[in-house]
Amino acid sequence: MKPPVLVLIMLVATMSSPAFARSETCHATNEKEVASLFDRWNSSLRTGDAKKVVANYAKASVLLPTVSNTPRMTPDQKEDYFKHFLENKPVGKIDSRSIEIDCNTAIDVGLYTFTFGDGSQVKARYTYTYKWDGHQWLITSHHSSAMPEKN
Q1: Distance of CA 133 to the CA centre of its chain
Q2: Residue 105: which domain range?
C-alpha cells in the first residue's frame, strides 16, 4: 500500500496532466459587457412580455425572486413569476455592484432598486451568474432579496 502523501502527489500530478487540461475556449469579455447584461434584462422587463424576460435565462437556470418565496427552476415557472411581476411595471436601477469574470462565466453582485408604476420602490440585494453558451451570455442563476433593514 502506498503512503497517503504519495497517493496525493500522484493524484495532483495526474490531474495536471494533458488529459485533464481545460480544452474550453474562453469567450473574451469585460466588465462593461457583463454590466450591459443587466441592462438587457432590465430592457426586457420594460417590454411587459414575460417570454422576453425569460429569454435571458439558460434553460437549466435558477431564479430566486425578490417578491416570491418560491424558487423558479423551469422556463414555465419563471414565465409565471414574471407575468405577475411585470403587472407592476418594474424598472430596475443598479445602486452598487461588483463583477467577477472567469472563462465563459461571470458574476454580477450588488444592490439595486426597483421602482414600480405606482411610484413605490423595493431596495434589494442581487446576484446574477452568467454563462457563455457559445452564442450569447445567459443567466444561470439569479438571486434577489429585499433589503432586511429599512433606511
Answers
A1: 14
A2: 28-146
